[in-house]
Amino acid sequence: MEVEGEELKKRKQVGEDTVHVSSSPGDFWRSRNGPRKFFDRYSLPKGWLYCPPYGDNIGLIIPSKVPLSESFNKNIPPGESYTPKEVIDQQRSLGREIGLVVDLTNTDRYYPESDWTSHGIRHVKIRCPGQDSVPDAESVDRFISEALATFAQARPPGIYRQMYVEALYDFYFQSKPELLVCPETPEWKRDSDQDNEVVAPSVPVIKKFIF
């Protein structure tokens, strides 16, 4: 049939035993040896509904479950939605301005990145398989690199002591990438022996939280 032919063109292999057929608003999953099954792309992640939305901040980091776009609301009871916009408003009401979102999910179906970037919030995607799997070395390396870059941007020139960065990688049982070079010791540090001197900032500092 012509329709079947069109579907075949859209198929994308996702494993040895399944074929994925894109559709809207749902997706079809067909076992190579079984009937085609329907998968709602707006189905909730397992355990999502009753998972607490977010926890107490740890420094500037706010742990949270993944927010879901408004497209998922058809599967969510009234009052239980947790969209990116709601997250921004909730945290703002607590006096927290989100500056960076680190997404550790292994899919792009939960929300469009623009839900954050349109509000001036940086978005970083680090795909972690989940399902009892630990992040791979590449994901850990990227997370550390982003953390170092964010810290350097907030407090230039960043961490300039090589031994500190190496200790950070050792903690995660990895070797520091050769391409990662620490910044030079700042002039103020070279010219001063008062390592413990603390200078109060002369202007107010606006905290940006990592979500």
Structure, explained:
The protein has 211 residues and is α/β, with parallel strands linked by helices. The chain has 2 domains: 2-40, no CATH class; 70-191, Protein-Tyrosine Phosphatase, Chain A, CATH 3.90.190. It is built from 6 helices and 7 strands. The chain has helices at residues 2-10, 84-93, 114-117, 137-154, 162-171, 187-190; strands at 11-13, 18-21, 26-31, 36-40, 97-103, 122-125, 208-210. The strands form 2 sheets. The protein has a 4-stranded antiparallel β-sheet. Strands 6-5-7 form a 3-stranded parallel β-sheet, covered by helices on one side. Strand 5, helix 3 and strand 6 (122-125) form a beta-alpha-beta unit. The chain is globular, with a radius of gyration of 23 Å.
- The mean pLDDT is 77
Secondary structure category: alpha/beta
Q: Class of the largest domain in CATH?
A: Alpha Beta
* Fraction of residues in helix: 25-40%
Shape, per Cα inertia axes? globular
The H/E string reads: HEEEEHEHEHHHE
Q: Radius of gyration, Cα only, in angstroms?
A: 23 Å
Low-confidence sequence ranges: 1-26, 198-206
CATH superfamily of the largest domain: Protein tyrosine phosphatase superfamily
Characterize the main sheet: 4 strands, antiparallel
The total strand number stands at: 7
Give the strand content.
15-25%
CATH topology of the largest domain: Protein-Tyrosine Phosphatase, Chain A
Instruction: Report the total helices.
Output: 6
State the end-to-end CA separation.
49 Å
Question: What is the total domain count?
Answer: 2
Instruction: Strand order, main sheet: write it out.
Output: 1-2-3-4
CATH architecture of the largest domain: Alpha-Beta Complex
InterPro entries: mRNA_Capping_Enz/RNA_Phosphat, Prot-tyrosine_phosphatase-like
Biased composition (Basic and acidic residues): 1-19
Region (Disordered): 1-26
GO molecular function, one term: catalytic activity
